[in-house]
Amino acid sequence: MALETVPLGKVSNGQALVLFVPTIANPAAPTIAELTAGTVKKITYSATGDGYKHTRAITKVRANRFTLAQEIQYDGTVVDDVTITYAYTNTAGDVVRLALTKGVSGFLVERWAVDNSVAIAAAQIVHVIPITASESIPDAPVKDQELTRTLVCNVSGTVLMDVAVAA
After folding, report:
1. Name one Pfam family in it (predicted).
2. CA-to-CA distance for 67 and 63, rounded, in angstroms?
3. What is the CATH number of the domain that holds 129?
4. Where are the alpha helices (DSSP H) in 6-159?
5. Which domain holds residue 149?
6. Does some domain include residue 109?
7. What per-residue confidence (pLDDT) applies to 37?
């Protein structure tokens, strides 16, 4: 039997785009116009190197049956958590701090595996996360490191993974 071909991966450097989009009419099909509107904020490079965290967990519903030796499992609740640790300068350059003040609602849109410099285009695959911003918490200063703050985003609706951008 021949060894299977090993598919090459993609190094993550420069291969992400994270946007804050105030309004999306149909989150299952965000449009180019919505994702490039003047109110959209690019926040990818405001986040520290490990500062953009979107985690997803699915709880398991475990069931068993009378005398059945095998446990049965179902998908349960999906839990998405989003935090953004960003460089803090207390200037107009603090995109995250100024765009995502406490109580502001909108959408985080993630695009992976496409160079950051590539324009949004139809058929690109994105994740759409409806959020309401919580408080931006100052992180303790650390010698020889940038000042940072961490923003907790409350997921406020159904997160849609792998949706295509509409024209």
Report:
1. Phage_TTP_16
2. 12
3. 2.30.110
4. 32-35, 95-99
5. 16-164
6. yes
7. 98
CA–CA separation, 39 vs 133, rounded Å? Answer: 16
Three-state DSSP at 31 gives strand
Average pLDDT across each block of 10 residues of the chain; the chain has 167 residues. List them in order.
Answer: 91 96 99 99 96 97 95 97 97 95 98 98 99 97 97 98 98
Amino acid identity of residue 156, one-letter, is S
* Structure confidence at residue 19 (pLDDT): 99
Q: 117 in helix, strand or coil?
A: coil
Note the helical H segments in 77-122.
Answer: 95-99
Q: What is the β-pairing status of strands 47-63 and 72-87?
A: antiparallel
CB 75, CB 56: distance < 8 Å: no
What pLDDT sits at residue 1? Answer: 83
